[in-house]
From TrEMBL:
It is a single-pass type II membrane protein. It comes from Acorus calamus (Sweet flag). GO terms for molecular function: pentosyltransferase activity. Keywords: Glycoprotein, Glycosyltransferase, Transferase. The lineage of its organism: Eukaryota, Viridiplantae, Streptophyta, Embryophyta, Tracheophyta. The keyword Nuclease does not apply. The keyword Lyase does not apply. This is Glycosyltransferase 61 catalytic domain-containing protein. InterPro entries: Glyco_transf_61_cat, Glycosyltransferase_61. Residues 194-301 form the Glycosyltransferase 61 catalytic domain. It is found in: Golgi apparatus membrane. It comes from the Eukaryota. Pathway: Glycan metabolism. Its main location: Golgi. GO terms for cellular component: Golgi membrane.
Amino acid sequence: MTQGQRFSTQSLNTPYHATCRNIAVTSATWSAMFGSRAPRPPCSSSSSPDTDPSVRNRTWTIRPYARKSDQTAMSHVTRVTLKSSPTARPHCDVNHTVPAIVFSDIGYAGNLFHDFTDVIIPLFLTAREFRGEVQFMATGSKRWWLNKYAHVFRALSNYEVLDFDKDARTNCFPRVLVGLRCHKELSIDPALAPYGYTMSDFRAFLRGAYALNRTRAGAGSGARAPRLLIVARKHTRSFVNLEGVVRAAKKAGFEAVTMEAGVTTSVAEVARTVNSCDAMMGVHGAGLTNFLFLPEGATLVQIVPWGELERICAIDFGIPASDSKINYFEYKINKEESTLMDIYPSDHAVFMDPRSIHKKGWGAVREVFLQQNVKLDVRRFMPVLKKAFKSLHG
């Protein structure tokens, strides 16, 4: 979760050569991504070596993952060391004619939200301008993860992803970018993006990568009821009364369907399901990331759990949805709608002073407020459903 973002790209352009373990930059032109975006812990895509172009015979160390301020995420990310040297042109086992981008798919990879905010959107921002003529090199490579998002990699690069850690050859490139551009949580700042890329551009890219046909909500739907996808979670932040929620959605005028996607669920399958819908709703959680596959003009409803989580919910999904031109509504549950009432007495700090839990740190927030389930008061929730329905007919 983040608040803001500072970003810049710095390059070494010298007559000297730069090497990076199994990479040689034959023109000595490399770029490193710097920035900070800051609460869960603060996110960033920053690196902070001294990159004065006049410096030679120096070494820089970078961990190419977009959450630099998060020690837990970064503890597993391989350090990439770059060295500038006045020596002769290095021996090359493979000469590439396209630039390389070095990134890590470790960190929190495997969590859908982090897959997109920490890697996929930053990859789009960094690689899209090359129109496929760029070579990806992944460090800490999880082959299953690369396969899971194969559609994205094929749409961004004309070449197979190389394993930075296992490829023993010396690969020579005219240019290497270490790390990825990133702006803010699950979104893009057009003022900082190459060619002014927007979230609409990114979502259009996703539709192309996954061959999604619907570009606008309701397009070609005739008189059918708008389709609402209800994200059903199994363990935490699930709807205790899911059947009642489905009935309420139908009463509001929607065709209601439910979906629960796990780590091993095909992204392409999920993308097609979401794209077939006009609206989506669910309790705050990684599954809401799939709103990115909704057609333009669609609607997202986020259920805010008990515990003063409004800011977190806004940063993670509210702002990104608005940036994506998605109609956005949220519903804040009251304590009676939370299963925390079954665990803690009514005079506990969880209810009387939620902020005191926040003061203990993100770990405490996660262990208390993100473990609850929701019994939605469908009568209280109905006005939000009606607003969501109306947003699709405006």
